[in-house]
Amino acid sequence: MYPDSPSRSKLDLSGRWQYSLDGKTWNAVNVPSAYDFTGKVTFSRTFDVKPELLDSSTFTLVCYGINYSAEITINGNFVGRHQGGYSSFAVSIPANTLQMGSQNSIKISVDNELTPATTLPPRQQAGGWRTYGGIFRDMYILATPKLYIEDVAVPSDFTPEGKTSKISVKAEIIDRGSGIKTEPGNLLGFQVEAFDKLSGEAAGRSGITPIRLELNKSETVSAEVVLAQPKLWYPSPDTSSLYVFKCQIVKLVNKEVSVLDEYNLDVGLREIRWRDGRLFVNGRSTMLKGLLWQEEHASFASAMTYEAMERDVAMMKTLGANLVRFQYPPHPYLLNLCDRYGLLVIEEVPLTAVPADFLAKDYYQELASTYVKEMIGRDKNHSSVLAWGIGDGFETGTPGAWDFVKDSRSLIASLDRRPVYYCTNRLNDSCTANVDILALNYDGTDPKDLREVLKQGRTTDKPIIITRYGREVEPKNHNGYSDPLSMESQARTAMLLFDAIRDSRIAGGVLASFNDWRTDRPSLATHSKDPYLRAMGIVSGDREKRIAFDVVRAMFNGEKVQALPIGTYSSSAPIIYVLAGLVVLIAFAFMYNGNRRFRDAVNRSMFRLYNFFADVRDQRIIPYSHSIFLAMIISLTLAALLSSVFTFYRNNLLLDNLLSQVMSDSVKERFIQLVWNPSKFILAMSGLLFAAFCLLSVVVRLLSMTVRTHVYFYHSFAITMWSLLPYIIFIPLVMVFYRLLESQLYIVPIFSVVGIVTLWVLLRLLKGISIIYDVYPFKVYAIGLLMLVVIGVALYGYADYSESASAYVRYMMHSSKNL
Predict the structure, then answer these.
(1) DSSP labels, 3-48
(2) What CATH code would you report for 9-144?
(3) What is the architecture, at CATH level 2, of domain 287-556?
(4) Is the pTM of this model over 0.85?
(5) What's the helix, strand, coil split of the chain in %, to 5?
(6) pLDDT one-digit tens code per residue, 475-503
(7) So what CATH class is 158-267?
């Protein structure tokens, strides 16, 4: 953020710190680093300040990234508070806070816990990235002269003017008690010197713009640098040309110039134009061939080293990519690397999967606007930045969302001239009228479907970028591309979708992704056997290359792609459903035909319910063994049906996120592991269902204390289990249920029948309760249904209070309609 210069010093705070979870026990840790823990951690260390700096300098604490919120004190004095784990920030250290010597202490309290409604990003949904905590990026104290350049702005674009070009540089200068006074014949001013970054040769110099000093007030001054035969910056395989602009506060005394402060920055000269939906850089048509990059590595988590970051950028450049997408502001070194290597950047604030209810709230708009200001304030001078993103997948289609997008664009326009976008799942989203670029997340894998979507999108003259396309894989799966989970399928899908994007002649696309990443919430749709791993990268988390790496390199560079093996995979329903259906059907048929008492009980319970339950109450005609057998049969049947449903819909994002609303992460993690192993799911779920039925029997027995009739556990157990009898009609369905779900024609009838039978079972149970309680039936129906409503409302109210369930359920339903 602040390159070294002769007039400035940095007190590096990297290295050994102490941390504590309770404020009492302290242990050592290296900073920067990241931890995989949610909660509050306090960091502390001492540092040295030289006496010559203390008297002549003003100090600023510069933090590249602390996740998520931080409260900072130095020598016991509160210095600042910051929210936002990925935006870098600088905090001015008040005068007289630091002291001479090595006994200066800094303490930072860090909390990385995200909430569903009050943090940005909100608590991640399924598929989001991992919220590692800690001081995971560099931090230092910047010492500048008391009269110093606080900020510099260089235009993001320029128009060539023949053999020379004028670049206007604006600087914000502030005096923090320097005591410098201008005398007659002397001049205090601002100037800019330009040098070729590669050769170091002087390229141009501005005149000196006079400065008027006012204590503790900033002044904006401008200077024009004239560059002869300027070299241009290109996103290409060639080395991109950069200039170093040395922005200086100078004092001129008797024609001798002395530099009081120097602020250096790299500048790339490029002209960006959009014509007919295509990008032109310096007049050259450029198709965007991008990659999504996540700031995560298997060895470093989010605290990646400079060497690891540069290796990633070099690999992306080798692939032939010319664009990188960041879903949140990355380490500032990444932007420096993209400038140097010639990679365009689209950079976003992490406003991901946010319901429209929150977008309309003042506090959330303030969080978003602060993030935007910090992102643009830090990265506005990078020639690599192509456009600013204001979010990904947030809920649109409401007046609140419309106003949010419109206000965000207006804010960005006041800070920088580059275009604005947000990522959406449909091109005809109403809020896209308020942005400059249409950014589409395409989650499908059918190139014909993508071509049709893009054909419909050609009705607009705005540029279109596919901001996400690709396929998740099962690591180490080499079954050929006929297997949709194979690495060959990932490579082929990337190739076919890239061809569709290229042939549609839109601006370009972003492949998701360069690297794998870990998530906060376990995902049902995972194919990696690790519910927290998103294996979407063309390289793994430890940067092991997959087949798709070479395929992407060939297609980005216009080379012929080698043929991929098709394999012998064929889709089929898990055989366990057929086996489970046969076992249940044979067991029930054997018991029904071989035991007359059981057969009579089944017939009477199904067709003469009142007499059956009355006989259970008065004569105890049903042995425990028959009730237990029936409960086991029904538990296995329902477990197999549930397994079929979750196996079939395990790639459904709506279901995935709904499960996150009703399950804790630890419970969902175990549930996912069962879903991906149908045999274990059926065994475990049948056991849980049987236990639930037994528990229901206990509840019925306990509620009998509210009536005068004496009810034994036998009665409650028998009527509970035999109320479930209608579920036996699903036994033959177990073997074919998965196949029926594959046809849209059968889905609505199937689930309608399941709902009707479940209602039938509930009414049977209430009728049985009325018989053994000897209570008027309609009274039991009314009280029973009322209890169900009260319990449902109570559970939903708790979920809404703790997880903002209402807002998220509406958001998920709205999002599912747009897929």
Answers:
(1) ---TT-EEEE--EEEEEESSSS--EEEEES--BS--SEEEEEEEEE
(2) 2.60.120.260
(3) Alpha-Beta Barrel (3.20)
(4) yes
(5) 40, 25, 35
(6) 989 999 999 889 999 999 999 999 999 99
(7) mainly beta
